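Need tokens for this chain, all 203 residues.
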Amino acid sequence: MVDGGILDHRQFIKALVTLCRERSSGTVFYNLSSGLSARIVMNRGEISWLAFGEHRGSEAIEEIRLIDSGRMSFNPSLKLTIGKQTLPTTPEILKLINTRSPERKGRSKGPSHKPINSKPINNQPPVDRVFNKNEVCEIVVRESIEFVGPIARIVCDEYMKSQPTQISLNSVHKLIDTMVLDIDDDAKGHLFKGRVNELLQLD
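Here are the structure tokens for all 203 residues:
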């Protein structure tokens, strides 16, 4: 049994992504102070079964996404399942669990990089430049997924929710810096940042 300690929702998602990338097998427990517990069974990095209280499968996903924080642990020798579940793909499950909801408040208290031939998406002069947020997001996700896995899409989509269709240069830099924090490796973060800066002609 590996005790991951108390994790907030974002840290919990990152821990799940790490287990997926490591192709881990076993059961993840996410225990609330109320005594309720989420259970996520993994088989070689793929999520195959979920439960939260009496909820199973897709219903459990809806409940788990409402949790603010809890104590996470992982038991690689245990696979607790009751019946087969029809679930979305693992990246889709991670994205669904990470979807923010206003109901979440206070709940806790109760593949490889491919060569890019893309042209820069914006040739405007640096002053008052604006960018299409969808094009920026695609480039950022494409350049970071080899370093952070499925969480790349989650982080980008979450950031862009509050952004207009056309975003400022400052907003682009903030997104890049946010992704660099998730990479957790200075050399890889620098490489990612350089790639995106080149494609967007930010320098």
